[in-house]
């Protein structure tokens, strides 16, 4: 077995390219396991900052099959996202073996996030494995890999200052809003979306003293979310925006498939949208959004995972609709001005768009009195972390990755070692029987009583000790041979994956 990962994140791609690549990504893991025979397991991590596939591949040493699997996955992603296969292949960083382990552990620890050290991604890594279990696409190796990544992330959180910093995309967004919010305790906040990322936003707002919070949902979940989180449900978004100081939009609803007779409530255009529980592109209900908002249509307004047919995929033009457009914001600002009358102009409205598939039309930034921060803005403002803190976290990740690789490579020899031990046990029984028989003959000849059970146990211990001592060098050799085979296989996998990348006419990515 070989671990293979194809990853695309904010580090390699701009957010526009990442958005296009990740459209309709939720079904890729299930599809690749079902259609690519060498792939025995797949786990997908899809957030506002990254789209990553982790594969467990049963591949021949020449790497041809793994190369085929790499291209096949790229073709599936291309088909779901609407980009060309060449673009999909060129967008991915391909890793194998130890590189896969090191990267996932770093991701889970928040070291590869837009906001370095944020803790939300740790929950998303856990939930990605849970979704793979539900979809029956995981494997023993991937289970061990992701569980160890979660334990490593917890160690980084408890053993370094990185875990105590309270860093997250939400906290960074609210930091940027703070320059325009004079007092949080008298400010009105409106959330668009009801997923767990909205829940994280409620907690972050309350931590700053904001208690006047409303929530709006296209899918009709606002009332339920409001009741469970102690906030107000919003039916009229325009009216709510007119009263708001801060808007946090994290619905991820842009690009949903259209359904006859359903249109978005907000905006100058009628924008097709999906009703709840019908979109195929979802994660487990209640999924939190590590590394930023969960992507995929209806990920925030999560329903039940389901297969994706060509009819279910959103048409290219569907992705052009926004949950909140400039016309809606203009109307809200006009209503706020009318209410103010002769009073001073209303304070600036800060809009925080935390969805990868932008909820908010970028033209909102051109509306007078409105400040719009999207993920690109947050990326530009993400604060640096002290090098010594990052180094300490990196050391924990590297140590855990090395230990995992030793365990994983050692498992390659398990079958051979078990066979050696079984063979040794057969020898032990045969030699013990012979030794006990000789001892019985000697005692009978001397007129002594036959060997007691204690005598037999002593003979067996001695024989087993000698045979296992002789066996130890063979076990060491078998393990070394298995590790060498595994490393050679990984090298072949790298070559196979790179050959596919070269064939696509793009440079190979293999960074750790």
From TrEMBL:
<keyword id="KW-0521">NADP</keyword>
<feature type="domain" description="Glutamyl-tRNA reductase N-terminal">
    <location>
        <begin position="7"/>
        <end position="160"/>
    </location>
</feature>
<dbReference type="InterPro" id="IPR018214">
    <property type="entry name" value="GluRdtase_CS"/>
</dbReference>
<feature type="active site" description="Nucleophile">
    <location>
        <position position="48"/>
    </location>
</feature>
<feature type="site" description="Important for activity">
    <location>
        <position position="103"/>
    </location>
</feature>
<feature type="binding site">
    <location>
        <begin position="47"/>
        <end position="50"/>
    </location>
    <ligand>
        <name>substrate</name>
    </ligand>
</feature>
<feature type="binding site">
    <location>
        <position position="113"/>
    </location>
    <ligand>
        <name>substrate</name>
    </ligand>
</feature>
<comment type="function">
    <text>Catalyzes the NADPH-dependent reduction of glutamyl-tRNA(Glu) to glutamate 1-semialdehyde (GSA).</text>
</comment>
<feature type="binding site">
    <location>
        <position position="124"/>
    </location>
    <ligand>
        <name>substrate</name>
    </ligand>
</feature>
<feature type="domain" description="Quinate/shikimate 5-dehydrogenase/glutamyl-tRNA reductase">
    <location>
        <begin position="175"/>
        <end position="254"/>
    </location>
</feature>
<dbReference type="InterPro" id="IPR036343">
    <property type="entry name" value="GluRdtase_N_sf"/>
</dbReference>
<dbReference type="InterPro" id="IPR015895">
    <property type="entry name" value="4pyrrol_synth_GluRdtase_N"/>
</dbReference>
<comment type="pathway">
    <text>Porphyrin-containing compound metabolism; protoporphyrin-IX biosynthesis; 5-aminolevulinate from L-glutamyl-tRNA(Glu): step 1/2.</text>
</comment>
<dbReference type="InterPro" id="IPR036291">
    <property type="entry name" value="NAD(P)-bd_dom_sf"/>
</dbReference>
<dbReference type="Pfam" id="PF01488">
    <property type="entry name" value="Shikimate_DH"/>
</dbReference>
<dbReference type="GO" id="GO:0008883">
    <property type="term" value="F:glutamyl-tRNA reductase activity"/>
</dbReference>
<dbReference type="InterPro" id="IPR006151">
    <property type="entry name" value="Shikm_DH/Glu-tRNA_Rdtase"/>
</dbReference>
<dbReference type="Pfam" id="PF05201">
    <property type="entry name" value="GlutR_N"/>
</dbReference>
<dbReference type="InterPro" id="IPR000343">
    <property type="entry name" value="4pyrrol_synth_GluRdtase"/>
</dbReference>
<feature type="region of interest" description="Disordered">
    <location>
        <begin position="272"/>
        <end position="316"/>
    </location>
</feature>
<protein>
    <recommendedName>
        <fullName>Glutamyl-tRNA reductase</fullName>
        <ecNumber>1.2.1.70</ecNumber>
    </recommendedName>
</protein>
<keyword id="KW-0560">Oxidoreductase</keyword>
<comment type="subunit">
    <text>Homodimer.</text>
</comment>
<keyword id="KW-0627">Porphyrin biosynthesis</keyword>
<comment type="similarity">
    <text>Belongs to the glutamyl-tRNA reductase family.</text>
</comment>
<feature type="binding site">
    <location>
        <begin position="118"/>
        <end position="120"/>
    </location>
    <ligand>
        <name>substrate</name>
    </ligand>
</feature>
<feature type="binding site">
    <location>
        <begin position="193"/>
        <end position="198"/>
    </location>
    <ligand>
        <name>NADP(+)</name>
    </ligand>
</feature>
